[in-house]
Every structure is written in structure tokens, then in C-alpha cells.
Amino acid sequence: MCHKSFINSPRASPVHDSAARGFSLVSAIFLLLILAALGIFMLSIYTSQRTIANQDVRGVLAYQAAKAGIEAATFAILTPENAAVVNTIFNGCTAGMAAPTLGGALSGFNVTIDCQLTTQTEGENTIRVYQITSTGRSGTAPSSDFVERQISASISTCRVGLTGLATDPPC
Q1: Which of 10, 15, 32, 145 has the fewest CB atoms found within 10 Å of its own CB?
Q2: pLDDT of residue 146
Q3: Radius of gyration of the CA atoms of the chain, in A
Q4: How far apart are CA 98 and CA 138, in angstroms?
């Protein structure tokens, strides 16, 4: 009988096995590098979106601080002007009007209020026009946490008479 020996039988060359294993290793490392780069890219997008959203919220808060300044100036101007018995004309319309103290979410914001008064006569009436500009801000420019919003408003009051006295009745 013919007996075959498997000792000298042809097998796959060890060179081909190590080349296949080397190619798999290179492919795995390349795939890991691609996934790591994709993760870093997604993290940078997330960080920038979060920064933008934070600045948007701070912009809204700065707007609300400026609006609080307009409301404080309006109250200061109209309270003596609309009193039943007017004893004084509002004389606090200056470039540095008193600003309100803000609390709560607006506690880190500063408000500056500027006011300009012009007086016009129309017929026998004295018209006072108050031009108010309120600025709400937080942080210091040019840092990344700086935010500022500005609002302007006009308020006009009318008194009968050309004397412009506080005791003149409203129009």
C-alpha cells in the first residue's frame, strides 16, 4: 500500500499569513484614526454650538437690562409730569441718568442711561421731548464674554401755556 506522509505536504506559506495579519493591523489602526478624527470634529462642533448658544442667551439678558433702563427712565420722567398737581418738571434728563440696580439673572449686567431733552412750542402748548438711550452690557470688550445691547425711546409731554412752568396744566 501506498502510504502518504503529511510531513512534507504543501501548506500555506507563513509569509502569506503574516502579510494578511499585517494588513488587518494597518486597516484597524486606520479605522481607529478615522473614528478618533470624527470624534474630535464632533466635539469641536458641539463646543462651538454651546458657545454660540451661551452668547445668544447673554445677548437676550443684555437686551432685558437695557429695557429695564428704558423703563426706569420712563418712570422717572413721567411720574412728576403726570402727577395730578405737578410741582416740578423733571430736571434729571442728563447724559448719566441714574440707572436701576439689577438683580436675579441680570445681576451681572450694567446699565447706562443717557437722556436728552428738547423743548418745542406748538401753538400755545409747550412740548417736551425726552430722547432716552439705554445700554445694557456685561463683560469687557474685546473679550469673548462681552455682550452689549442698546435701546432708544422717545417720550413727549405737553403743557398748556408758553411759560413751560410745572404748574401749567397738561394738554
Answers
A1: 10
A2: 92
A3: 38
A4: 18
- Residue carrying the nine cell digits 510531513: 7
Q: What is the mean pLDDT of the chain?
A: 81
d(CA 151, CA 137): 12
In the predicted model, is pLDDT for residue 85 greater than 50?
A: no
Q: Which residues contact 124 (CB under 8 A, 6 or more apart)?
A: 160, 161, 162
Give the span between the Cα atoms of 137 and 99, in whole angstroms.
13
- Report whether pLDDT(2) > 80: no
- Tens digits of residue pLDDT in 25-51: 888 899 999 999 999 999 999 999 998
Sheet with 147-160, side-by-side order of all strands:
110-122, 125-138, 147-160
Q: Which residues contact 120 (CB under 8 A, 6 or more apart)?
A: 126, 127, 128, 129
The neighbouring-strand residues paired with 6 are none
Cis peptide before 142 (omega within 30 of 0): yes
